Amino acid sequence: MTIRTDDSTTELDVVADFDGGFSWIAHPEETMQRASHALVVDGAVWVIDPIDGDGLDELLAERGHVAGAVVTLDRHRRDAASIATRHDVDVWVPDWFGGVASELDAPVRRFGAELAETGIRSQVVTRSRFWQEVALFDPDTATLVVPESVGTAPYFLTGDERLGVHPARRLWPPRNRLYGFDPQRVLVGHGTGIHDDAGGALRDALEQSRRRTPALYASILRGVLPV
Asked: Could you tell me which SUPFAM superfamilies the record lists for this protein (predicted)?
């Protein structure tokens, strides 16, 4: 999978603009299609797992003032610290995450079941030594952000799926963690979000994950074998 490792920025690609926020992909040429999001609550903008890009500050300013940067997956530190520092705000990390705060070169604050006092709910998705992940749900806009366990980048999907479970979680999808949500939209950490029948796409991804595992693994294998 290709991924940008240099420190240069690029003109970002806004892939969704909705009432309550927007999403962008800073390096759309990457196979991983790393997506970032901004959720707006009462004029305060919370940037979720952000990757920097030219013009980002202007886009954020159009929505309000930046209140904080949020890390929702232990591997998604990305540019949260630099963006938070630039806007003189903190990086917010789930209160049970380990080994993340020490890697962030910015002030860190913790959150539990709710992100600050925004009304945005936090849901544990995966809690292990190797994978720490929370989902965020804004009930005012019915927006669900799942950073890693589901996605829409090609390597998440097989057949006619619009939303797929991460290849490493296909046999153990987080059904008990995500079944309780009926979102209007699902935003993901890799790929563009789902804005049409998002609840149906989420249920389909979770319910059919195991059955479709062989097809997904076969397609991934075909993609890495020499031709």
From this structure: Metallo-hydrolase/oxidoreductase
**Is residue 185 left, alpha or beta, with left meaning phi > 0 and alpha meaning psi from -120 to 50?**
beta
Q: 178 near 206, Cβ under 8 Å? A: yes
Direct distance between the N- and C-terminal alpha carbons of the chain, in angstroms, rounded to an integer = 17
Q: What is the DSSP letter of 59?
A: H
Secondary structure string (H, E, C) spanning 62-110: HHCEEEEEECCECCCCCCHHHHHHHCCCCEEEECCCCCCHHHCCCCEEE
How far, CA to CA in Å, does 2 sit from each of 29, 31, 34, 118? 8, 5, 11, 35
- Domain 13-224, what architecture? 4-Layer Sandwich (3.60)
* 0.70 exceeded by pTM: yes
Kindly state the average pLDDT of the residues 139-168.
97
Q: What is the maximal distance between C-alpha atoms in the chain?
A: 54
